[in-house]
């Protein structure tokens, strides 16, 4: 993707311009806006989530935005996932959110985000015991390159 296109994708994610879905994320239900078309092209989970009858959508819900509850994902991790989907941006992925991002990547079937989530060096992880438990939960080889 060109730098201009990347910047534009980051801008529409940041501003929520033309967003047609709003996620209520985490325990505090932080509202995070996104675009169904972009999400559907990134994940078969999102594609299934947003499958609809086009005629019904046009006639009954033309001016109604969708809201999706996501109580089991941390808002910061959800934002990292969206930044990756929109612009291949991993600048906010760090030891504090790596395991939460891994959970979101597995939940929404974003395999290209799993690897970077696992490559955070062990000393930078917020809680190494939690990281071990999560990787076992997902049947992943833990930190083969970092160990």
UniProtKB/TrEMBL annotation:
- What Pfam families does its record include? BTB (PF00651)
Task: Report what the protein is called.
Answer: BTB domain-containing protein
| Record domain BTB: where | 19-94
Which range is the signal sequence, renumbered to this chain? none
């Amino acid at each position: 993707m060109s730098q201009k296109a990347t910047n534009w994708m980051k801008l529409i994610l940041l501003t929520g311009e033309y967003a047609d879905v709003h996620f209520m994320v985490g325990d505090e239900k932080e509202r995070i806006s996104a675009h169904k078309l972009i999400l559907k092209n990134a994940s078969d989970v999102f594609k299934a989530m947003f499958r609809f009858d086009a005629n019904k959508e046009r006639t009954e819900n033309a001016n109604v935005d969708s809201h999706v509850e996501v109580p089991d994902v941390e808002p910061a991790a959800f934002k990292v996932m969206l930044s990756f989907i929109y612009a291949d941006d991993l600048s906010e992925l760090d030891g504090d959110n790596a395991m939460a991002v891994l959970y979101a990547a597995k939940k929404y079937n974003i395999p290209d985000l799993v690897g970077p989530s696992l490559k955070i060096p062990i000393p930078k992880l917020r809680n190494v015991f939690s990281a071990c438990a999560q990787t076992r939960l997902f049947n992943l080889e833990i930190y083969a390159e970092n160990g």
